Amino acid sequence: MQGRRQPGVDRILVATDRSDSADSAVEWAAEMARRYGSELLLLQVLADDSDDAYGEAVSGLAKLSEALAAPRTRLQVVVDSDPSRAIVETAEQDRTDVLVVGSMGMSGRKEFLLGNVPNRVSHNAPCTVVIVNTGITRRGLFKR
Q1: Nearest Cα to Cα of residue 53 among 87, 19, 81, 79
Q2: 3-state secondary structure of 38
Q3: Is the dihedral of CA 68, 138, 134, 82 positive or negative?
Q4: CA angle, residues 85, 74, 93, in degrees to nearest 5
Q5: What's the pLDDT score for residue 110?
Q6: Residue 52 confidence (pLDDT) above 70
Q7: Which of 29, 64, 80, 113 could form a disulfide with 86 if both were Cys (CB 3.0 to 4.6 A apart)?
Q8: Are the C-beta atoms of residues 9 and 97 closer than 8 Å to each other?
Q9: Whole-angstrom Cα distance, residue 88 to residue 125?
Q10: What is the number of other CB atoms lying within 10 angstroms of the CB of residue 30?
Q11: pLDDT tens string 10-21
């Protein structure tokens, strides 16, 4: 076993669009980070590269991070028209151990043609992927 990296959960990435349903996935990932003493990366992918949208995303993630009170939390905003690609690339670059996404994604015709974001992420990620059922908002699921 010498030379091989031992399995662990050092880095957790959670992708969010900051919607109410995505909050369940963020809370789940934050609790996992607390339990394992892991670093938590909050990621938001934007299709719009305007300064206003970017600034609003950074500000929103900072407020979310404060509310989570999870130690070792980092924030990242990425501009990309393909959210699943951006999430997978960030996981690769960050050497993520566990990637957390919510079960809600694109819907309708676009989902049929391209596949939804959680599905595409789970098939392309370089690490373990946890898809949290976000169909029902579960505020307060984890006690802080």
Answers
A1: 79
A2: coil
A3: negative
A4: 35
A5: 43
A6: yes
A7: 80
A8: yes
A9: 5
A10: 26
A11: 999 999 988 877
